[in-house]
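Slide 14.
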Amino acid sequence: MLKFRNRLMIFFTIMIILMVALVGRLVYIHVFWSDELTQLAKEQQNKNIIVPAKRGDILDRNGDKMAFSIKTYSIWASAFEITKPVETAELISETLNIEYEPIVSKILGASTSMVKVVTDLTKSEADLIRGKSIRGISITEDTKRVYPYGNLASHLIGNVNMDSDGFLGLELYYNT
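Slide 15: predicted structure.
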């Protein structure tokens, strides 16, 4: 009986020491690391996203649009989330009536987690893809610059690059 009591006392002593050590560690983290851990949490949870402004229209003297932006949609694929790229590409290509090989090659050749597989979709096409609820596929809204008169005054109007930044002419001059 005495042996059992000694063992029980040793066990409780060890448990008390461990509890004191655990509480001490928690107090140390809470008191001394709180500022650093709070800052790390804020950096992890907050993200600044730059929302690009809509490019203005370029009009001639009669008020006719020489350049304007329209909404388009793009399909993005999460290359690491898609387990069957061929079936996914076939589903997209059947829905949009396009070839599936380029989509498969973009998904398989992705060097980043997200890859743009199809661009310049209409709202109805984007809604069709959304309706399929394909795993690893997301739809984003983009803008496309339209020049209804083609090359008319193109040297004056200029153009924009893929990111809708002015590249030449008035597009560059009024970029800000």
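Speaker note: The radius of gyration is 30 Å.
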